[in-house]
Design goal:
By secondary structure, the protein is of the alpha/beta class. The chain is 39% helix and 15% strand. It has a six-stranded mixed beta sheet, with helices on both faces. The structure holds pyridoxal-5'-phosphate and zinc ion.
């Protein structure tokens, strides 16, 4: 099996065999995996997909591996939740949450891209893998590499959340904190990939890695009865997930696997403290101006996004939009999602909910058609963004309990949490 015909430069179109490669030799442009879609159309049916386990590998013909997958066999298949209470709060009557906060094994959407990139790394016979990460990729590469018996080197900005650091170290990875931003870490990893024959999932395996994000789109469409939603709202760091989710819808359409044409409007969400893609979209431009990140949404803190141009282009082309959220709005977004839907998202999820609220207020989102928001990471990983001042402690006495009942204004707490 395997339907990949090769790699193609997304800038100049030069073709390469499927291989480890960071960028195009001719123009330094990013690379894309090419498939034989005619052959896939002859093989892939709804019945075949639905006969397979609920993991991302049920769409394996559309993923860039040649043999059996070997990493992340249980990844994907996360719930699409009808979000009635959050929808009412935002005035959206058909709101859904694609909840990758419960992805296996490390509770973020990054498990999708790592499953694909490391399965590919093993096909290449690589024994050492790694990544440059804003946190979630570090967790996922470390966990999946250990489970696959691979050695991993993970490089992160040294100031990441403690939980993301612990959630990487625990797997026995070779974790290196770098004094600098993610963009500094990424540049260093490019140099490392030039010197060592290692598989860095988002550097020289990036074109394979990105394909894993398409499964986020496939799963949404399948759960909606093989229909692409009217709109999606996706948090953006490097701009890969948003671009590839849309590519996923378009591939299903091309293969005749959707009931209707794709009319999805694509919306992007960033933090105000790191908004190079959203700022470009607001200028109606695809020219990004890099920024120096300063936000609590550290998983989205990429100042010079590798796929930023493609993200902005997809948003503008589909009639979508992008906006950004302040740190305070991010916390409010986390609280609103938790108190309406019982889902605890990390700061990136707060960004998505806060931006969805803004877009709804701006009347940019369709009120009565399916709108899907991407919750991409788990709140237990970024608890230090929240504070504990609303927590009451009493003596184990009924009188103390009743004193608190009288004194404490619980409605005020609810209002503070859901504001
Ligand atoms: C990495 C990440 C994103 C965005 O990923 P890109 O594909 O780089 O845009 C979104 N949410 C979370 C939680 C992430 O870790
Ligand atoms: Zn090129």
């Amino acid at each position: 099996m395997g339907y990949v015909t090769g790699l193609r430069c997304r800038e100049c179109g030069t073709r390469f065999p499927k291989q480890l490669r960071a960028f195009c030799d001719e123009c330094f442009g990013p690379l894309e995996v090419d498939y034989d879609y005619e052959a896939i159309a002859g093989a892939l049916t709804h019945d075949l997909i639905q006969s397979r386990p609920k993991t991302l590998w049920r769409y394996r013909e559309l993923l860039p591996i040649d043999g059996e997958p070997t990493v992340g066999l249980h990844t994907g298949g996360t719930p699409l939740v009808k979000a009635g209470r959050l929808g009412r709060a935002l005035g959206l009557n058909q709101l859904y949450i694609k909840n990758d906060a419960v992805n296996f094994p490390t509770l973020s959407f990054k498990d999708r891209v790592v499953a694909v990139a490391l399965s590919k790394a093993r096909e290449f016979g690589l024994e050492i893998v790694g990544c440059a990460s804003t946190g979630n990729l570090a967790n996922s590469v470390a966990a999946n590499a250990s489970a696959a018996g691979l050695t991993s080197f993970v490089l992160i900005p040294a100031n990441l959340e403690q939980t993301k650091v612990i959630g990487t170290l625990v797997y026995g990875t070779r974790l290196i904190g770098v004094n600098g931003t993610y963009d500094d870490v990424n540049r260093l990893c490019s140099e490392i990939s030039g010197r060592y024959n290692w598989g860095l999932v988002n550097v020289n395996l990036r074109h394979f890695y990105g394909e894993g994000s398409k499964t986020f789109g496939y799963e949404i469409a399948e759960a909606l009865g093989w229909r692409a939603p009217a709109a999606i709202v996706v948090p953006m760091a490097g701009g890969s997930l948003i671009t590839k989710s849309y590519k996923g819808f378009k591939e299903l359409e091309q293969l005749g696997l959707l009931e209707d044409d794709v009319k999805t409007q694509v919306f992007g969400a960033q933090a105000e403290g790191c908004n190079p893609i959203a700022a470009a979209v607001k200028r109606k431009s695809t020219d990004l101006i890099p920024v120096k990140p300063n936000t609590i949404a550290k998983s989205l803190a990429i100042g010079d996004p590798a796929d930023g141009y493609f993200a902005a282009r997809t948003i503008l082309k589909t009639g979508g939009w992008a906006d950004d959220a302040t740190d305070e709005e991010i916390i409010e977004g986390i609280n609103l999602l938790a108190s309406t839907e019982g889902i605890f998202a990390e700061t990136a999820g707060g960004v998505t909910v806060a931006v969805t609220k803004k877009l709804a207020e701006q009347k940019r989102l369709p009120k009565d058609e399916p709108v899907v928001i991407a919750i991409t990471g788990n709140g237990l990983k970024t608890t230090e963004a929240l504070d504990l001042t609303l927590f009451n402690v009493i003596e184990p006495k009924l009188s103390a309990f009743e004193e608190l009942l009288d004194e404490r204004d619980w409605r005020e707490q609810a209002a503070a949490l859901a504001s």
